[in-house]
Specification:
This protein is α/β, with parallel strands linked by helices and 528 residues long. Helix content is 53%, strand content 14%. It starts with a helix and ends in a 9-residue tail after the last strand.
Length: 528
Amino acid sequence: MKLEKLSKSLELLMNEKEILPTNEMYNFSEYDELTNIIIEILDTVYRMVNMKKIETKVSHAMKIDVEAIEKGLEIIEEAKPSLIKLCSDGKLIEIVPSKIIHETKEFIEKIKTKNIDRMNALFSLELLYDGNFDRLLMGFNPDNKIFESMQSLLLNKLKNIKDDEILLLWAQIKSHFNNDEQKRGFPLYDDIIPSNFFSFNDSSLTARDKCAILIAKYKPLTIKKMVEEGITSIPLILPGIARILAISDVSKISQISNLEILLIRSASQIIALHNSITQKETADIAKAIGVDQNGLVFDGEFFKEYQSKIKNCNQKKQKNELLSLNVKRLIEYISLFSNQKIAIEEALYQYKWGQEAIHPFRRNDFKNAKKTLEIYLQKDMSKFLLERNIIAFGKTVGRNQIDLYHKDLMGEDFVIEAKVYKVRKITLRNLKKNIVQLQSYMDLHDQPKGILAIYNFTNTLIMAPRKWIKGRILIVCINLCELSPSGRESSLEIVESDSNVIDVIKVGNVNGNYMRQKLTQKKKKHYS
């Protein structure tokens, strides 16, 4: 809402520029106000989507270890992969190693000579050249030493990756190997992958070893057999051989979404346009919002590229219109980014619906838990998430006991606080107190998203918006009421508030008539 109003203000300022005569006084006033609006917009954007983290992640991913990719290709070329002819659905598929090697060498040369920008190179690695390495390795027998060599190369990269990141990578890869046709993953061929390979009881290999051997050997051999069986739809697992070999000396594998790139590109273009219009340095805005003026947004490829494009554009009207359009586009990207479906969000709603459906059959479990009910439910939620390869666990930071903490595959941090409403009244004050506690735990991390999970055992139904409030907080209400829907006499609806983060609307039966009223701490003392 704030961004939309700032965008409208910018548009009005641009319109004012067309009406007022051009002289130094008006230009000074206009540019001063323009700079303040842009600062406010970018400051809001940086806070809403944690642009600093996105910028750091993209910057790390753009550091490509070209030599390691070359080394991997060289080892494969020296091993002389065979020409592959496969028959799939009556069609002959021919894989020519020399052609693939030549194509990959050309790509490597483009990176070296900077004839391709690093961001396009990064996406090409994941979308094209991971597949090239798979196709080349399909030309070897399973007992060929080439697989050990490639596994060793991958392990050399993975050894620098943090343990938590390795577990996330392993969970991601594991989720793609199954015999469930609906999930459209990789089939588990017994003659390729050992039966106990995915078992927790198999301690002969570490998670790093398993990631390396699965990517370097089992995956290409599985793809080959899939094609032979007429399966041409191959899942995309990120990262693959080329992407891992490309990792520079960082502690995690940065996976970048197109939307994150669009956010950086749009913000960079706004900076370039502002500088061109006002003739001010990027340092002015960077300093005002407390970010690095030499970073990707203020001095990266997107900024320099756009700055060059508008260099010969002398019409200020065009620049003003371009600035307004870029701000509007950035706001749309922010909206999409804030509301995009996240694995843990979807899983928690599945958990909510499942708990509400099975609650009548679990009442005795809940009653037996008594004083340990909240801990019992936290473990129950953690178990549910773990079964879906979503690693969430309790975390202690100093005196703070975080119920559940999760880092998703894109590197986003999530803090989950579970609360049980059983005897005490559901009030706006109590709900706000829960959010304050959640925010305190969020403050221990670098701008994570926070989730308040409410287990509601009262007979007052609680509803919450299925959206991220202020772009950062999600409230999931698990209604485990004793009474059936027809027997309930009141409900509470949590709504987003501009001034209070949330407000609560009560719907209740008063003197035979239903009424709807907003709860406030001042006017309704019995709800405070």
